[in-house]
């Protein structure tokens, strides 16, 4: 017996047509430094058609890569809408990649066109001569004359190129497995690796993002997308917003706490998403200049864990619920999200809020031990997290079809490199990245637990913990501390702060005080560089 | 370039495993007449495995049809979980079908097994001898000895059969297009027609049901599923509840207002779904015996339109939001749902609430004129509604592969037989079924509009409008009125009530007063029978 249902393919062109018609009045607002410039989804649809026509006129066809080098703004959303709909592949370049990585990924992806924000031209100009496959550069929000084109590359004004084009486009009907976009991991080891999303994976992921056990978007929302569009699809917010008619507020290059709070005051978004660093800055700015931010019903936090103290401060002082989410480039990125379960209140609620969250039905998850055996979801058994599902990567992109880093895949499951445990009711708690966990005398010490606890100390601005070689125990923790301005603290005092929070053998004896923790291009602690500084004898270590 | 995402197939077995593990504490409660009997999703999972093992032992394999003849209760949910997961096809028989239709659909579907509630055995016993393909009957909640088995049919006790089975089952990995369930239309013309759902269509539909612009399920919800599990998949609630860990409250055979209100008082559900008749009864009971029902955040209403007066009464007096939804067996069934758009308040909000609602991104919709041309979504142009999408039927089931009623499909779109218009922002307003619309002097008169207006009159319990032949105008409306007990009203007075609500040429001049409007098996007005009574001269008509 066969199903009688239609074989309708999930398609981002359908999503674009839906957003521009039935949610034509929803808006995209971009912060200008003083106020917002705004277009409707109806106008986004017309602009996307003009862009698709322009790109086709430049020779872009199905499967060709169109890159962006842009902030979160209106034009970037138009590219998100237009490029996959026309069958091309959107490659949002991470403007914060280290130069050699940026050049590597653009060449590896064979980007044909790059759309660049005017404010980023000085940075982009340094890369352009090394980009081997780029034929056209479109300059948005800026003057193309500021860019010197190498031989074989044409530089266009985005607005002038589009002005001449019709505002409708006959988007092709595609197989739902056709590629729609790509992102590269910002991995701290080896070359960045490419993940190629499909229309199907983007569509299903957007359906998950809008559900109440995830971000719960509806047309009542205005979504402040602080996390960059080049960072794991901005956690899926663009397509989720289009799917529900949620309006968008884009910060452009104004990512400091003060303009973020100014745009919040003016537009009053109902939802926001950003990494912990941003929320830390916003909280500090709020402490200095209190402001009502209760228009935010929920904020998603991902990339790394938010110190519980900060989550509490947002809730208790400002009535804003910050929700941990877990994901990665390879998972589109959701992942799990830390809505507490029904009935959890008080300390129990906060314990759930501190986890990386619960998995949705579409993401299967399991914990695998060192010996490859699947461990029980008992909230205790620690091992590597593996996931599978329709928006999870099954391989890395390879231009020539050769397998890339096959060790990251385990019989249909993605090995995440994250170490933790899963509770019987599906909540993930990460204790570390597999390469960061500290192996001391046959037991594991979580660097993340130590960091979180340490960051609750009033004098500590940042804390990062790495394992350093130890003759007796194999490895022991070293804590790198950045003190808050105007504060002092001794190692012994800081260690004392941990005494009632950890077993005695877990207490770190090695301490170092530094001005700044080195960070990766996406703002995570770069422990590889911290380890290198230690190995080079570049850190002044106090041993208790 | 190829996508690198996993080709993970959407599967109801995955959903079952998810519900029973990560939402293992969520519950299914069934009303017993006095209180509830309750199992957890964890127990549902074990019971489903026992059922799958039992069915396999009876020879049921992939693609075989397992039917139910049951109320909404715990055992029915277990069947919903187990049968598709094991690769068999769930056919929930509509216990209210007319006998010849019931026999027709069970034979047409070639049901191998029927699981029957004890309380329905007397009715089922009459059908069983005519069911040609049934080999096994499982009696749940009752005594199998009460059923005399025809030759070749074995009758089992559901509970005894399952007791002997293991509580785990190794569910097969299926293609997502594999059939999962089937429903037959209760069409008032011709034989019922079968729709075969797939794992893919059920999964995607459940993702839509849980989204905030639809029913918005989460694990915080307890869902009172009044609409039968045999009626268009109970509007998708079973799988949506499993997908989010929402708990379920099942009314079993207690569908009268008084027990419904009693179970609400005891369990305090947050969501409920039923046809207008049920809500009308509940409202009348509430007026007699007021009760706090504000634990209901939202109720979905479908099947036909709810009189706006009733929707207002629920909201103003009881603080409960009733939401129109539109769908049909062929659409899984969602459809559209009437959440008002952002910013709509007061009269504007109520105008939106009175529509059939807005379409989600996954359901494409268009209005097609008499000449086959696509009409604009201008909120005025009236024609037949056509829809397409991944959970919309593309054909009707045919055991021998022959095309069934191909006229219902138009180049990849389903012709719904509903007549209406779509607003620029995607709200559907139905004016009639295409066969019920009254064509008077080249203009269309909506029978539904007249019915809705008439049912706002204090003396009117029910009103149904049909077109009757007219020499001059082709057709003119005849209004059949059922008066409320203890009320009287003359035709002229009732017509007067419509004067300021309709154009003069739309005012009906033919009236008849009857004791009851004939209804279909799912409780809709059966206008075919009303027309037959008129044609037979069986109605006493007053013409003004």
Explain how this protein is built.
The structure is a homodimer of 544-residue chains. The first copy, chain A, is built from 15 helices and 28 strands. Among the domains of chain A are: 8-250, ANL, N-terminal domain (Rossmann fold), CATH 3.40.50; 436-543, ANL, C-terminal domain (GMP Synthetase, Chain A, domain 3). Chain A is globular and about 70 Å long. Chain A starts with 11 loop residues before the first helix and ends with a strand. In chain A, helix 1 (12-22) packs across helix 2 (41-57), helix 1 packs across helix 8 (237-244) and helix 9 (257-267) crosses helix 10 (276-288). An eight-stranded mixed beta sheet of chain A has the order 2-1-11-10-12-13-14-15, with helices on both faces. The first copy, chain A, is of the alpha/beta class. Chains A, B: Residues 23-397 form the AMP-dependent synthetase/ligase domain. Chains A, B: Pfam families: AMP-binding, AMP-binding_C. Chains A, B: It comes from Nocardia jiangxiensis. Chains A, B: Residues 450-524 form the AMP-binding enzyme C-terminal domain.
């Amino acid at each position: 017996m066969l199903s009688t249902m239609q074989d309708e393919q999930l398609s981002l062109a359908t999503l674009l047509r839906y957003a521009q018609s039935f949610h034509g009045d929803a808006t995209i607002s971009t912060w200008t430094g003083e106020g917002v410039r705004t277009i409707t989804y109806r106008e986004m649809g017309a602009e996307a058609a003009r862009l698709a026509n322009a790109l086709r006129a430049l020779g872009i066809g199905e499967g060709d890569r169109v890159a962006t080098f842009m902030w979160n703004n209106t034009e970037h959303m138009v590219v998100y809408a237009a490029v996959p709909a026309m069958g091309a592949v959107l490659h949002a370049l991470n403007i914060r990649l280290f130069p050699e990585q940026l050049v590597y990924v653009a060449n590896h992806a064979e980007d044909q066109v790059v759309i660049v924000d005017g404010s980023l031209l000085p940075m982009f100009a340094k890369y352009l001569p090394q980009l081997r496959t780029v034929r056209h550069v479109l300059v948005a929000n800026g003057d193309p004359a500021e860019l010197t084109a190498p031989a074989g590359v044409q530089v266009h004004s985005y607005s002038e190129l589009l002005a001449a084009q019709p505002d409708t486009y006959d988007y092709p009907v595609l197989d739902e497995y056709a590629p729609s976009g790509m992102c590269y991991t910002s991995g701290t080891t080896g070359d960045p690796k490419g993940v190629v999303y499909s229309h199907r994976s983007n569509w299903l992921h957007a359906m998950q993002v809008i559900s109440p056990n995830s971000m719960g978007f509806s047309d009542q929302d205005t979504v402040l997308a602080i996390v960059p569009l080049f960072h794991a699809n901005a956690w899926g917010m663009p397509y989720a917003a289009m799917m529900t008619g949620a309006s968008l507020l884009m910060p452009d290059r104004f990512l400091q706490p003060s303009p973020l709070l100014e745009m919040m005051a003016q537009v009053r978004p109902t939802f926001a998403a950003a990494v912990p660093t941003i929320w830390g800055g916003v909280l500090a700015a709020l402490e200095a200049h209190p402001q009502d931010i209760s228009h935010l019903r929920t904020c998603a936090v991902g990339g790394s864990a938010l110190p519980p103290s900060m989550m509490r401060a947002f809730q208790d002082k400002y009535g804003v619920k910050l929700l941990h989410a877990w994901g990665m480039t390879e998972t589109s990125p959701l992942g799990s999200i830390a809505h507490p379960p029904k009935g959890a209140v008080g300390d129990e609620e906060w314990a759930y809020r501190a986890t990386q969250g619960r998995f949705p039905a579409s993401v299967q998850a399991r914990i695998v031990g060192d010996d490859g055996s699947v461990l029980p979801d008992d909230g205790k058994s620690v091992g590597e997290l593996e996931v599978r599902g329709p928006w999870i990567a099954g391989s890395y992109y390879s231009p020539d079809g050769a397998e890339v880093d096959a060790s990251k895949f385990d019989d249909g499951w993605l090995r995440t490199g994250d170490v933790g445990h899963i509770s019987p009711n599906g909540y993930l708690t990460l204790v570390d990245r597999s390469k960061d966990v500290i192996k001391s005398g046959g037991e594991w010490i979580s660097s993340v637990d130590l960091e979180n606890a340490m960051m609750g100390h009033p004098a500590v601005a940042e804390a990062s913990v790495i394992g350093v070689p130890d003759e007796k125990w194999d490895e022991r923790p070293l804590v790198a501390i950045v003190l808050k301005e105007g504060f002092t603290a001794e190692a012994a005092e800081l260690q004392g702060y941990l005494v009632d929070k950890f077993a005695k053998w877990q207490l770190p004896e090695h301490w170092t005080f530094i001005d700044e923790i080195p960070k990766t291009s996406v703002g995570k602690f770069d422990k590889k560089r911290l380890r290198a500084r230690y190995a080079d004898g570049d850190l002044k270590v106090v041993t208790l």
